[in-house]
Write a structure and sequence with these properties.
Layout (H helix, E strand, L loop, with lengths): L2 H11 L3 E3 L5 E2 L5 E2 L1 E3 L8 H18 L5 E5 L4 H11 L3 E4 L12 E2 L7 E9 L3 H12 L3 E10 L3 H9 L4 E6 H10 L8 H9 L12
Parallel strand pairs: 5-6, 5-8, 8-9, 9-10
Antiparallel strand pairs: 1-4, 2-3, 6-7
Helix pairs in contact: 1-2, 1-6, 2-3, 6-7
Amino acid sequence: MELNKLIAKDLLKIKAVFFRPQEPFTWASGIKSPVYCDNRLTLTAPQVRTDVENGLASLIKEHYPDAQVLMGTSTAGIAHAAITAHLLDMPMGYVRSGAKDHGRKNQIEGRLEKGQKTVVVEDLISTGGSVLEVVSVLREAGADVIGIVSIFTYGMQKGIERLEQANVKNYSLTDFDCIAEVAAQEGYIESSDIEKLIAFRNNPSDESWIGAQK
């Protein structure tokens, strides 16, 4: 089975990705969403966790063979960076959302040498804002950030454009379109719901998909 479809099935099975197009969730921003995503649930599902970490390791070996250190995003990317680094026998660390206000006042935890080829490990990418803040912190510290790996990406245009502007690539285990397709095939949603999901993905602030006919 293709890796993106395997991970899609895994995330749907444990409801790490949960579709509810008929009764949308409300994000903190107020935007109505037909999908809920919590990849932290992968950590409590051993077989899914194994698929995810092996998948992230394979992405790094394929796309970033020169990587020297992995850096997880705080907090969701930390465990995945640690396990994947263990599989690859690589050093890892993580980047805090802000510097500590005590001790050494670190924002980057773990040893990072200037010029080290660094891969950022993230769980979820939507508009790209959070992960690009991490990339910026690492670059300011002298790291050579060669790219990002993530479990899932929405593929939102804003996120794609931001990554391009920051000159950084992301490779995800699966994406919104793949999970929507698998969800329909597996009976989690109706095939007619896919159009609504893609309309949301293309423009989350346009809620006209909510009233669309099935």
